[in-house]
Amino acid sequence: MNGQFEFNRDKTVYVNHYYFYIDDEDFGPLFLKVCSYAPWSTKLCLNGHEWAKRRLEKRKIAYQALDNGFLSCAEPDKLQQICDSLGSQDIDRVFRKWLKRISLPLRPQDREAGYDWDLSIWQMEVSLTQIFDRPLRGREFFEEIIRDNLDLGRPDRVQLIFDRVVTKKTPGEFRTRVIQNGVHPSLHIEYKNFDLKQYFKEGRGCRTEGTFRNPKDFGVNKGLSNLPYLQQIGRQINRRLLEVERVSHNSGLSGDSIQRVVQPTVTEDGKKAPGLKFGQPRVMALLLALTMFQHLIDGFRNHDLRQQVADLLGLTLSDYSTGQMTYDLRRLRLKRADLPPAENQPLLRHPVRVEVARLFSRLEGRVLRPAMAMSTANDAVLPFPLRQSLDRVDADLDLLIYDAFPLLKTG
C-alpha cells in the first residue's frame, strides 16, 4: 500500500515576522518578534517570575517554583524585595542588549543617527499568588469565593475594586464571568480593557492576576516609564479584590455559630444562657429592633429598646414588661454578645450580633412567612415552577417510601 502526499500553494507568501527565541542570563526565556517590513515594529515578551528566579539563584536562596509563581522560598522577604525591584530600566537594558546581537534592518549607524526603537506597554500582567498549607481546604475556599461573589462585575462593585467612578458613559461590559475549563474554574471581572482574573493555581494557591491592555484606561500613556505606576495600580486592584472577598466571606455564619445562638449554652463562668430561638416572636422582634441602627450614636436604654420591640410585636408597654425586656437583654449578653450590664447599652459587637439579627429577621420576614402563607392559605397559589418542583419532590418521596415498604402501596 503506497501513500502519497501533495501540497500546493496558489500564491507566494512572504515572511512578515521573524521570531528570535532567547535564553537570557538575567530574564531566562524570552522572545523578540520583528516585523519584516518598514517601520520594522518589534515586540518583546518576557516574564518577571523568570527574572526573579534568576536573581534568587544568583543569591543562592532556595525556592520551589510554580508555573509563573512560587510555591515556597527560604527567604520570602528577600523574594518580595526582588519582585519589587524589577523596573523599566531592567527591561530596557535587556531589550537594548539583544538589539545589538541579532540581525536587524536598522544598522548601528542608522540607530546612532536617531532611528531607533522605543518600548511601550501593550500588555502587562500583575499577579499575586497565595499558597494554602491545606490545598483541599484552599480549593473549597476558592469555590466559595466564586459562589459568593458573582455580582463583583456590577458597576457599584467595580468601583470598589478599581477605585474608579463608573457612569453610564464608561465604556465596556460590566459583568462577572465564571469560566470552567474541565474542573478548573476561574473568575473574571472587567473594567474597560482591563481583565481581572482569579483562579486556583496548580491545586495549591489562589492566583489573582490583573492584565493591562491599554494603560490609557488609568490615565497614562503606553510609555515604558509608566511601568512603576501601573505596577502600583495593579497591586492595589488585586488587594482590593481580595479585601472585598474577605469581607463577604467573613460575613457568612457557620452552622456552629447559628447553633450556639439558638440552643441553650453555658458560659465560661458556668452561667446558663437560654437560646434565642429562631421564629419565636419576641426573639425576632428583638433582633429586628437591633438591626434598625437607631442607637448607633447614643446607645440604647431598656425603655428605648422596649418600646421598639413592643411596637414590632403589636403590644403595649404594659403587655411587654420591663422584666421581659431585661430577660431578653440578659440572653443577648450571656450569648457572648459583648453587652455590658450597664443600663446604657452600646450596639452589639460580637459575631453573634448584627449578622445573626440581620440573617434571622430577613429569613423570617422575607422568606419563611411569605412561603408558609402561600403554602397554607386557603386561596394560596404557589408560583408554577415552585409548585411543580414540590410535586416532583412529593412523588419521588412516595416512590422511595413504597420501595422501602411495598405493603403500603398495596394496602
Fold blueprint:
Blueprint: E1 17-24, E2 28-35, E3 42-45, H1 48-58, E4 63-66, E5 69-73, H2 76-85, H3 88-99, H4 108-112, E6 124-131, H5 135-148, H6 155-162, E7 176-181, E8 184-191, E9 194-201, E10 205-212, H7 227-250, H8 255-262, E11 265-266, E12 272-273, H9 281-290, H10 302-313, H11 322-334, H12 354-376, H13 384-404, H14 406-410
Antiparallel strand pairs: 1-2, 2-3, 4-5, 6-10, 7-8, 8-9, 9-10, 11-12
Question: Can you walk through the features of this model?
Answer:
There is one protein chain. The strands form four sheets. The chain has a five-stranded antiparallel sheet, covered by helices on one side. The N and C termini lie far apart (74 Å). The radius of gyration is 32 Å and the shape is elongated. The chain folds into four domains: 13-106, no CATH class; 120-251, Alpha-D-Glucose-1,6-Bisphosphate, Chain A, domain 4; 256-370, no CATH class; 381-410. The chain has 411 residues and is an alpha+beta fold. α10 (302-313) crosses α11. β1 (17-24) and β2 form a beta hairpin. It has helices at 48-58, 76-85, 88-99, 108-112, 135-148, 155-162, 227-250, 255-262, 281-290, 302-313, 322-334, 354-376, 384-404, 406-410, and strands spanning 17-24, 28-35, 42-45, 63-66, 69-73, 124-131, 176-181, 184-191, 194-201, 205-212, 265-266, 272-273.
Can you give keywords for this protein?
411 residues; alpha+beta; Alpha-D-Glucose-1,6-Bisphosphate, Chain A, domain 4; 4 domains; three-stranded antiparallel β-sheet; 14 helices; elongated
